[in-house]
Amino acid sequence: MTTEILTIVISAIGIVLTLGTSLFAAGAWMVRRIDDRIDAVEEKLSTRIDAVDEKLSARIDAVAADVTDLKISVARLEGPPRRLVTASR
Fold it and tell me: In sequence order, which ranges of the chain are alpha helices (DSSP H)?
């Protein structure tokens, strides 16, 4: 092989390696940026979901208390009538 052909082959290999390395670095940078954005969105959503969960838990607890009060009221309405004076034997 002549020196010109050897120089062209080595230059081509160098260019391919340089382009491959730069593409790999750019891909790694994009992946890192996407991961950072996804982490930020995940943190925001986690905070919002936790707030909604707390609100719903409070509302469900309030409904449970109301249902208990309603059960007691219905039991009083359906139960035997109360007598003020009871007959003693």
Answer: 3-78
Q: What is the pTM of this model?
A: 0.53
Q: Rounded to whole angstroms, how far apart are CA atoms 63 and 52?
A: 16
For the four alpha carbons of 35, 37, 45 and 43, in that order, the dihedral sign comes to positive
Tell me how far apart the alpha carbons of residues 69 and 11 are, in angstroms, rounded to a whole number: 86
Mean pLDDT of 5-14: 96
Q: For 47-63, what is the HEC assignment? A: HHHHHHHHHHHHHHHHH
Condensed to tens digits (0 to 9), the pLDDT of residues 32-77 reads 999 999 999 999 999 999 999 999 999 999 998 888 888 888 888 8
Helix (H, G, I), strand (E, B) or coil at 79: coil
